[in-house]
Design brief:
The complex is a heterodimer of chains A (250) and B (309).
Chain A lengths: L1 E6 L1 E3 L6 E2 L6 E2 L5 E3 L1 H15 L5 E8 L4 H10 L3 E6 L6 H15 L3 E5 L10 H9 L2 E12 L2 E8 L2 E8 L2 E5 L11 H7 L4 E4 L12 E7 L8 E3 L2 H10 L6
Parallel strand pairs in A: 1-6, 1-8, 6-7, 7-13, 8-12, 9-12
Antiparallel strand pairs in A: 2-5, 3-4, 9-10, 10-11
Chain B lengths: L1 E5 L10 H12 L2 E8 L3 H8 L6 E6 L8 H12 L4 E5 L2 H13 L5 E4 L1 E2 L4 E6 L4 E7 L4 E5 L15 E4 L9 E8 L12 E5 L6 H14 L2 E4 L1 H5 L20 E5 L5 H4 L7 E6 L12 E4 L2 H11 L1
Parallel strand pairs in B: 1-2, 1-4, 2-3, 3-10, 4-9, 5-9, 12-13, 12-14, 14-15, 15-16
Antiparallel strand pairs in B: 6-7, 7-8
The chains are: A alpha/beta (250), B alpha/beta (309).
Chain lengths: 250, 309
């Protein structure tokens, strides 16, 4: 069984991002970039499936600029067998990413696509669902547990009311939530080994996909800052303030 | 303009989340229809027809829609959506699951989680865990949009006289089946709609001690939230997580207990009207957004607070 794991290069989750001085976009100059945390969880899940013997090949793919090779190498160090970069300098939207992935799947023919539920930069939470539309495959989004049995993927999903379980015919699309697993750290020998694993590059044009944007980013700005309030001395003062100053309790 | 609002419901009750999208639709202006896709969902359609300002209620009622599986609901939305200028749904886990799939079927780049409407094509939405607000213009003919519930008040659910019509087409991809669900039953208010939220973090230390949060919440008639750390540690269930990838809340009063205040958590609660932070670490980032901070051991402060209220 073959797993395709699409990943994204994003600003590291510990980094505070600010707008560029002209407000045209986020200022990412000289910031630490990483593999999107949800994508890392997807890679880890694929590796665990292989360790259980359910999966034989893991292919990592990223759509983005050349530097995304760094994150593909991270995926290879975590256990992916080979990687593909679909190279473009455009800021590719989820719709176009899903189209690229669909085109790639026509030749790669994976049994499962495991990807992060959202990227922590755009916070869109769309790509997996859109890939479901283009392939017609079943989707198990926001997965906190994934089991393969009898040719189906059983996915426990984190939903507003609690947990929901669905059973999906394969091939299927599964998007990872935070509690699917806790990713391992890549060991030094595996990082070294990853450098020799195959990493192919292609372009959206070669896949026959038009990635021109459907939205226009007008600007980005900081949200209205909350002004820090006061430190109260004790519980009695707190209750008094809530009752008589903020008037949020009676 | 003509707007289709996708209803959030459980086949018997129209959820109030739907009403936030109706308000967003009213901001856009134009004719507003509501789609109720479900199974034996006639009572939902009746409730939807009562929503103020609604034109039509379109009901798709068949077994394939019983569990709101995205595989079956998305083609229905895509079938109807093309005749509208906008398709809206409040960004619940359901809508986040279904709407992008519907958008892709329509060849539309969806706009997620909008917090404001600038004009018919242009929206504001938080990005980078709410560190910034992006203004985005959609170039697609039909806009497919999820709406941040806390950014739009609920529309009135009475006084309307929508015309209920049925749609017969059935989409059943047959490749996904509902197995079951574990839904917590609780008499507490719903987290995303509560006036008061009491949230607990890692400092609670155990599932047993997290019960102190429930106790205070019940005393105040509040909903219960949790930080990611508390959920990851197993102190609280996943549906209580407040933050970038969990629930977004904006109550009148948010009480953060033993929560340090990572940016990912702040993303889910910083639009609350009044924020109280109780933490024994005076350097905790949560204090930078709190209106009232109490530097104290929560195990001492919580019982005192409960007694004083």
């Amino acid at each position: 069984m073959k797993v395709l794991v699409p990943i994204k290069r994003v600003v590291d989750y510990n980094v505070k991002v600010r707008p560029k001085s002209d407000g045209s976009d986020a200022d990412l100059a000289n910031l630490k970039m990483s593999i999107n945390p949800f994508c890392e969880i997807a890679v880890e899940e694929a590796v665990r499936l292989r360790e259980k013997g359910a999966v034989t090949e893991i292919v990592a793919v990223s759509i983005g600029m050349q530097q995304s090779q760094e994150q593909l190498r991270t995926a290879l160090a975590l256990g992916a067998d080979r990687a593909i970069l679909i190279s473009t300098d455009l800021a590719v939207e989820p719709l176009a990413i899903a189209k690229c992935l669909k085109a790639l799947m026509d030749s790669e023919k994976p049994d499962i696509v495991l990807l992060g539920k959202q990227a922590i930069d755009g916070d869109n939470n769309q790509t997996g669902q859109m890939l479901g539309a283009f392939t017609g495959y079943a989707q198990g989004t926001f997965a906190s547990e994934l089991t393969l049995e009898d040719g189906r993927a059983v996915v426990k999903r984190e939903v507003d009311g609690g947990l929901q379980t669905v059973s999906l015919e394969l091939p299927a699309i599964v998007t990872s939530d935070l509690r699917l697993n806790e990713p391992r750290y890549a060991s030094l020998p595996n990082i070294m080994k990853a450098k020799r694993k195959p990493l192919d590059t292609m372009t959206p044009e070669e896949l026959g996909v038009d990635v021109s944007p459907r939205t226009q980013l007008i600007n980005v700005r900081l949200p209205a800052e909350r002004v820090a309030g006061i430190i109260v001395e004790d519980v009695a003062t707190l209750v008094d303030k809530l009752k008589n100053e903020a008037k949020v309790i009676s | 303009m003509s707007i289709l609002v996708v209803a959030e419901h459980d086949n018997s009750e129209l959820k109030s989340a739907t009403l936030n999208s109706v308000t967003a639709a009213q901001v856009l202006g134009g004719d507003i229809d509501i789609l109720v896709a479900g199974c034996d969902c006639g009572s939902v359609a009746e409730q939807a027809a009562m929503v103020a300002g609604i034109g039509r209620v379109i009901v798709a009622d068949n077994a394939a829609l019983k569990h709101a599986l995205a595989e079956n609901v998305a083609p229905l939305i895509a079938e109807l959506g093309g005749t509208y200028t906008h398709v809206l749904a409040t960004a619940t886990s359901n809508a986040k699951n279904i709407l992008p799939r519907a958008a892709a079927l329509m060849d539309v780049q969806a706009i997620s989680d909008i917090s404001a409407i600038i004009d018919a094509d242009t929206f504001e939405r938080p990005v980078y865990a709410g560190s910034m607000i992006a203004t985005v213009k959609s170039l697609d003919q039909t806009k497919v949009v999820t709406v941040r519930g806390t950014a739009f008040d609920a529309a009135a659910n009475t006084g309307g006289s929508g015309v209920v019509t049925s749609i017969e087409s059935v989409h059943d991809l047959g490749n996904s089946t509902f197995v079951g669900e574990e839904v917590a039953k609780s008499d507490r208010p719903e987290l995303t709609a509560a006036n008061i939220v009491v949230s607990g973090g890692r400092a609670l230390g155990s599932e047993e001690q997290f019960a102190m949060i429930y106790q205070l919440a019940d005393h105040m008639g509040a909903a219960v939230g949790a930080s990611r750390a508390a959920v990851d540690a197993g102190y609280a269930p996943n549906d209580m997580q407040v933050g970038q990838t969990g629930k977004i809340v904006a109550p009148d009063l948010y009480i953060a207990v033993g929560i340090s205040g990572a940016i990912q958590h702040l993303a889910g609660m910083k639009d609350s009207k009044v924020i109280v932070a109780i933490n024994k670490d005076e350097e905790a980032p949560i204090f930078s957004v709190a209106d009232y901070g109490l530097v104290a051991d929560l195990f001492v402060a919580l019982p005192d607070l409960e007694a004083a209220l």
